[in-house]
Structures are given as structure tokens and as C-alpha cells.
Amino acid sequence: MNVIDILKKIKRIPQVILPKDIGLIIAYTGVSPGWNVLDSGTGSGFLAIFLANIVKPGKVISYEKNKEYAENVIEHIKKFKIENIEIRIENILKAEITEKFDLITLDMKGAEAAVKKLNENLKSNGFFAVYSPHIEQVKAVRSALEKMNYETKTIENIVREWKVTSKYTHPRPSGIIHTGFITIARKV
Asked: Which of 15, 18, 105, 152 has the fewest Cβ atoms within 10 Å of its own Cβ atom?
């Protein structure tokens, strides 16, 4: 089953990072097979599942402090036999983490504290990818990253679907425009 088909079948509890934004994370980090990824703020698991599909035989370790959210994702990864994801029901800011990662993704309040804590867990030339719904969160994350001399950029992805017929062509009048900001930072 294709990863897009799997995502359509997953029960959404909290808001998810949409494929349009996941695509930016993939494009700007170059995430590849064999990478090891730390994900925090698992939520409904969309990002973790998408990344697990790409990094095989690498692994995704995803932290979620909300037990209900984590159990929902655990149920789905068992159902769809996704073997390279490990869900840890724990607050990332209190967790003891010894592994090193090629990519660390954060979709959580207080991501700037997680960036500081996880700096030592990111391999040289590795990436942070931080999803922030509000610009104030972006500013806090960027401040933390820039103090640690990361190459940093923040991007937003606005997608409009078009209606194309034999008579006329125009953008559809509704759609998902702003979902969030993505800050990509590379450790050099």
C-alpha cells in the first residue's frame, strides 16, 4: 500500500502536517534511505509515517507526550506493518536521548528548547526541520538556532488547486493556503 493511501486511513486526532509541507521538509533536507530520524510531536503520525517510508532501512524514533495520540499512531503502525518507527510516549524535553540523528523534526510548542537540548544528538551536516503555525514560534526557534551558528531558512508553502475545463481555467475559490512555517537548519 502506498504511503498516501495509508495516511488517508489514519485516524486524525490532533492537526497533522500535510503532504504539501512534508514535501518541503524532504526537498530542503534531502532525507534519504538509511537516515535515522528523531521526530517530536508525533500527533497523528503523518510526518513520522511519511519519513519512515523514505528512510527505510533507516529508522524514525518519534516522541509524543500525549498518551492518546501516541496509542493511536502505535495502533496504525501495527495495522499497516510499518516496522521502522518506534513511538516513545514521553516528553522530549525530559527524555534521556543518546542516539545520533541525520534529521530531527519538531512539531511542538517550545521547539526552541528542544533545539537547544537536541543539538548534541544531531550529526554534523544533519538537519533540524521545525514546523511552526505562528511566526512568534519561528522567531524563537530561529534565535536559538542562530546562536548555535546553524545555516537557517524559514519557508511557507502556499498551494492553490486550479480548475481546468474546455471552457475556462481559474484557481479554485477555496483551499488550504497557510498551514504553517517550516524552519530548516543545517548543522555545519
From this structure: 15
More confident residue, 102 or 178: 102
Burial class (CB in 10 A: 0-12, 13-18, 19+), 139: middle
| CA 186 – CA 22 distance, rounded (Å) | 17
Question: For the stretch 85-97, what's the b/e string if a residue is b when 16 or more beta carbons lie within 10 angstroms of its beta carbon?
Answer: bebbbeebeeeeb
Is the previous residue joined to 33 through a cis bond, with omega within 30 degrees of 0? no
- What is the band of 92 on the pLDDT scale with cuts at 50, 70, 90? very high
CATH class for the domain made up of 3-186: alpha beta
Report pLDDT digits (tens) over 5-25.
777 777 788 888 988 999 999
